[in-house]
């Protein structure tokens, strides 16, 4: 049921936003730490501000989600970024990978630097409500499976 729910929510959001493209709206990105959990991570982003909505996705009116495997090496540099799954299946990988590559990492564990493989999820949402309403909608979207 959750699988269908995300596809339905995304289809409705995309239709509603694109049908009213001349009406201003808001975009929001929600980041979830899947593995390891944020409090168990060795490396976290140095700046915990919400990632910016990729311009390429916003211009196309693309909403959806992506799960990425990110490897941070022992020097705190991003070694690799691989798309695990996404909705829609195409169009999210390149702009999101460009954002992730720019992140600076810091060791928050208090332990020696070691490489870490992370599984993160980014949800991309658009809406015509207030920024707070769009954010809450995006948080709700992040609870659905990121598969089509």
Structural description of this entry:
The chain has 148 residues and is α+β, with helices and mostly antiparallel strands. It has one domain: TonB (TolA/TonB C-terminal domain), CATH 3.30.2420.10. It contains four helices and six strands; from the N terminus they run H-E-E-H-E-E-H-E-E-H. The chain has helices at 2-19, 55-60, 93-101, 131-141; strands spanning 26-35, 43-45, 64-72, 78-87, 105-107, 116-127. A four-stranded antiparallel sheet has the order 1-6-3-4. 26% of the residues are buried. The model is unreliable at 1-23 (pLDDT under 50).
CATH superfamily annotation:
TonB
Helix content: 25-40%
Tell me the fraction of residues in β-strands, as a range. 25-35%
If you compute it from the alpha carbons, what radius of gyration comes out, rounded to the nearest whole angstrom? 16 Å
Topology:
Elements: H1 2-19, E1 26-35, E2 43-45, H2 55-60, E3 64-72, E4 78-87, H3 93-101, E5 105-107, E6 116-127, H4 131-141
Antiparallel strand pairs: 1-6, 2-5, 3-4, 3-6
In a few lines, what is going on in this structure?
The chain is 30% helix and 32% strand.
Characteristic terms for this protein:
alpha+beta, TolA/TonB C-terminal domain, 4-stranded antiparallel β-sheet, two-stranded antiparallel ribbon, globular, Energy transducer TonB, TonB_C, signal
């Amino acid at each position: 049921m959750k699988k269908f729910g995300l596809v339905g929510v995304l289809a409705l959001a995309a239709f509603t936003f694109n049908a009213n493209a001349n009406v201003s709206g808001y975009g929001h990105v929600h980041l979830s730490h899947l593995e390891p959990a944020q409090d168990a991570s060795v490396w976290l982003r140095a700046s915990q501000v919400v990632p910016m909505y990729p311009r390429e996705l916003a211009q196309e009116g693309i909403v959806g989600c992506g799960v990425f495997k990110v490897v941070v090496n022992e020097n705190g540099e991003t070694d690799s970024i691989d798309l695990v799954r996404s909705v829609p299946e195409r169009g999210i990988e390149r702009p999101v990978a460009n954002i992730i590559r720019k992140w600076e990492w810091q060791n928050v564990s208090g332990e020696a630097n070691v490489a870490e493989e992370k599984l993160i999820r980014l949800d991309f949402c658009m809406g015509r409500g207030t920024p707070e309403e769009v954010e809450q909608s995006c948080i709700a979207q992040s609870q659905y499976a990121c598969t089509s």
